[in-house]
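pasting for the record
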Amino acid sequence: MPEQRNDRETSVEAIRADLRDGAFSRALKAIGDLPEHQGKDPELWSLKARSLQGLWRFEEAVATYRQALERCDRHPRLLLQLGNLYTRLGCGEEAVACFEEALQRAPALIDAYRGLLNFRPIVPDSLAARRLVILSQDKRRPVAIRTSAFFLLGEIHVDAGMDERGFEFYQVANRLVLESGKAGKYEYRVSPNAAAMTAEFFRRHARMQRAQPPCPALIVAGLARSGKSLVEKLLTEHPHISAGGELALARSLATHLEHGADLESVAAWVVRQTESPLAQWCPPVPGTEGTQLIDTSPANLGRLGYLGLLHPEAPIVFCRRDAMDLGVSLYFKNFRSGHLFSNDLARTGRAVALAEKVMDHWLTALPNPIVDVAYETLVRDPQGVQSRMIERLGFEPLSAKQDTESKENYWRLFPSRSADTVGTISPELIGFAKRFSRHLEPMAKAYTEEMARPGLAGAQ
């Protein structure tokens, strides 16, 4: 018996690794090879459904979750995951039903509150809010759970117009992250070589012929919460453009090339290369042969110069947003990983400024086709921005006017939410930061100082 248990654990860990690596077909086959895969183990059902999602087989994933719920006594985490999938598919009523049932069965399931808030407000004096207060104060809980509870309480109170109390919750949440040691003294950085990659640099290192295969990605670059998901939503209505996720191709390319050699030598070597590794780093998207994949990773922004050397034809969209609106959206967002500058107001202000400076730099330097998109213009005129992007990036115009609104407008707007592709594009959040102008003074001061600082090095 112990050996059988170890064999199963080894197999399951290998499947988890395949999911992390994007090897969804291999993971799905491995699950089917396990004799207990049709039993009552919620983890195996979850791994199977997530593999199907990775393969874009969403209907089968939904059916798998439904079968799993029958076999596994309506397991709360399976309900949560099905709710998240329904959210992705824009099925608001079904998602809400899953989140509510999950919370009935497991009141401490913190992510179910987050999922529910996407569609329904939680009243500050409700039972749900009181449960979150208890979770936030329970020091026996992991710090991540307590932190999530504080972030959610901030959203609940700001949603209810109780801005002072809401901001206090956000301050505590961000302070908990800092005290956990997760953020340390992290500052937003760009590649140390970015400033030297000028227009003259790219003229000096112009390619004689294109690297093959052509770049598979369309880079949508900017900080998180700057409108990248909205741009992705509009661009993917084109039949030759698909969402690729956060592929981080420019970052991967920079990591591949930055090995101590001086920049001029690296550039001279890159432009001589006739083969490109980027296609190998992109996951296949079923049913989209010949399609350009959107890469929305924020990690690309400071490293786009390397993409310009290898693939000067690769299209890029820059996403900008009012500095304070962007800053408060970052500060209110409970990131699961990365963006470690966002837990401190001053660091966030510096990050927003440095991102603007590096976009200004790339606009004058990169040889790539670039479109510069302002969030405020995007949400006021999505159809117009969509047409301009498609035209300037060299794609065929859409054959007919597309409906950019969701069929089910259940999605509630809030600065910290990320699933912007679900609901209607709306200008409702423009100017949101004005409600917190007094609280954001450290952010505004740091932003102004960084904008005045020459160069792209940022604060030291």
